[in-house]
Amino acid sequence: MEKMKFYKIIGIVLCLCLAAGSLAGCTQGGANTGTNGNAANASNSAGIVKVQDGPTEEEMTRLADITLAGAEAIPADKLNEGKYDITVKSGSEQFKVKSAKLIVVGNAMQLLMNVEGSDCSRIFAGKASDAASGTAIIGEDNGDGTVSFRLPLKSLNEVTGFAAYSEAMGKWYDRTVVADSASLDAAAVKPAVVANDPQSQNIQDGDYSVSVDFSGGTGKAKITSPATLHVSGGALSVTVVWSSKNYDYMIVGGNKYLAESTENGSVFTFPIPALDTPVNVIGDTTAMGSSHEIEYTVSFSLN
Q: Could you say which architecture CATH assigns to the domain 198-302?
């Protein structure tokens, strides 16, 4: 009897232990499940990369038509040397020109462009497809949110194509700009010359070197080049020097002009109707012992 009571007590204790173990296991399992769930959530949270808003590939490649309708192309040889403020229009929203200067040296010019943002670090004077194998033009960080680039320019008012490298996209894109001559200071443009219309020849008063196109006579004497052009109130005249000192007068437009000097060749000054326009003249020479009037044709062009 006592032995049965002992076994009964042992059985109850074992049942209680088993029940406690199950409860502990469930509690631990629940804790593990909760921990694993939180870790998964944390992992998912850490794995999410926030992508900032940026241009699409279509926006990066889009180029607007920036042609200046009716504007004449102006090359460097029509401009005076110097550095001028100029308005530049870009064909891409991804290449925004904040300000620009035109630099003219001799018969060459370039744009110094200040471009907004830091995504573009270099450009190439050609197509994007050729940029990887070409020589890039490295930009200069101005420290104010703009980068400066110097782009060779053929003409004003003419769309110029080039390539720009996007650091964000890791590739080259075609870009276009046009420099508007209407925004230039008037002093930047050389005076225009309109042949056969002396009143409209927009040449500032002063003296200019002009080249001489000469024909006629025997070829033994000629008017040397260059000659000197004089401009005063829209009227044009030239001072010429003959290769011979034997010319004592010239007849131009029916008027007779005497030699001003014969020391280093006969020197004459006479009016002309326009540049780049043939003028028939007569030169009287005493080289053959007596006076002989000889007909010539001469024209003058700005150097």
A: Sandwich (2.60)
